[in-house]
Amino acid sequence: MKKIRERLAVQLSLPKEIALNLPLITIVGRGEMVIENYKNLAEFSDTQVRVRTSDGLITVQGERLNLQQITSENLLISGRISGVLYE
Prior knowledge:
Immunoglobulin-like, alpha+beta
């Protein structure tokens, strides 16, 4: 089914993250990160944010992490980001 969606996305010139409901992660320097197409927030502290996506769990590590914005489509994380792990 995923292969069909990938081919359809290419034929219709749709971004893969939309067609396949994949997370889109944008990191600006070390201080800001946006995660789009997430399912839910699994854990939050000032040193770690864990976000569940259709592609697995994403863990953001750092210092003074803060959730600046939470909508049904994206999360805006700020602070000093030191790492991103995919589980």
